[in-house]
Amino acid sequence: MPSRADPAVAIRESVVVTRLDHVHLLRIRGDDARAALDVLCAGIVRARDGQLQHVLLLDDDAHCFADAYLVADDEEYDLLVEGPTADALHAHLARHLPLGSDIEVEDRTVTHALLGLDGPYAWELVSRVAGAEAIGLPYLTFFHADEWTCYRAGKTGEFGYGLIVPREARDSLETLLLEKGEPLGVTRGTLDTLDQCALENFFFNVRREGREPVTPIELQLQWRVAYDKDAVGLDALRRHRAAGPSVRLTSLVAEREVAAGDEVRLDGAAVGRVVNAGWSVTRGDCVALALLDVRWAHPGIETFTVSHAADAVPARSVTPPVLNNRSLFVSPQLHAYATRAEVAMPPLARR
Amino acid sequence: MTPTLEARIDHREMVLARIRTLLIESLGVRRMPDEIDPDTALFGSGLGLDSIDAVELVVQLDTEFDVQLPNDVFGRAEMRTVNGLVDLVLAAESAERDDAVAR
Lengths: 351, 103
Fold this sequence. Notes:
The structure holds two protein chains of two kinds. Chain A is of the alpha+beta class. Chain A has helices at residues 7-13, 33-40, 86-96, 122-130, 170-180, 191-200, 234-243, and strands at 16-19, 24-29, 52-58, 64-73, 76-82, 104-107, 112-118, 142-144, 149-152, 160-166, 187-188, 247-254, 263-266, 269-280, 285-293, 304-308, 311-318. Chain B is mainly α. Chain B has a single domain (3-102), classed as Non-ribosomal Peptide Synthetase Peptidyl Carrier Protein, Chain A (Orthogonal Bundle), CATH 1.10.1200.10. The longest helix of chain B has 23 residues, at 3-25. Chain B is globular and about 40 Å long. In chain B, 26% of the residues are buried. Chains A and B meet through strand 12 of A and helix 1 and helix 3 of B.
């Protein structure tokens, strides 16, 4: 029986607090900031003051360079960036920001830290620390508190909040969250926990499938791309689109462990390769993403096998998410962790 | 691959293509069909549909495919993505075939 103290369970049933040390925080300001961001981001920059936007940064070959939230804060912008190292990120900016433009880039990662709160009752914990304002915070918006900024986002399929806090105040805020969250079953999370949840909910992971030499077309990320603008990587992407993709990212569930790099077979023929996989504690099987031949990159095929070591693991393609996220059934206006047993829920696993 | 599987995938691709067209022509999604990835979220930051669009979408699916989607469709996880809509249509078609056989 999975333990609720396991962060993989807590994130699906209560709330976890995670240090987001893998995220770089940049502040971009200046008269040309928005125009410069439009060159960096593959999609149209739409975020208005007080909003976040999920954006994708490509390299010159249209491969994914970074996954980011763009935060529009008055006349300035924050970029919360996942994927590249700090050096690679700054080199990318130096190479692609227009010369002679009025832009200042401040790396706030040295002065600020991020904490993530994820889970169906994350809103209850954040409200205990940030006040009632947090409860009604719309998705992809933020507000400033005295010492920190609270935004609502997340890549787990559950309620998700991020707190941007001065680095010296991070530990005390984390302690406060764990204390206030004790009645809510709070647990400390890890990056591995967040990655597994992203996998289960088909949220793009730039550190896993995002490292493959493919484009947003194969990765099903075209909703974050605008083909009718000029930005880094879009020329290459337009050429690639004209040629047509040969593979597409597809969700699989497997009866036993499989791993990135394993070959996927259908009726004995190789049809693709696993690019991300992890054991789902909440489902009791292995969830994977594979780049499959587009002909077979559809849900509902029950007869795949994955070659893992000497094992031929039965697998089937599915429509994500592979869970019935509790957060879809929890209303901050009506419910509370203490009365969670009163909320009618379907089984956690979608079969 | 077996002919049965080939035929099933052909039908799924046909339903997917018609849903992409429906999203563009009836729901105003400003994308070309090949830009609408099958696992894209329909609502919020994905294709940008809202709750009013959801009602229209179900009506359009019922009409386009001549099926009756379940009454509780709005609470279902299938309503979250394009592939989920394909699953709903395929399930409704299957249920109606079963009903026809039973009659």
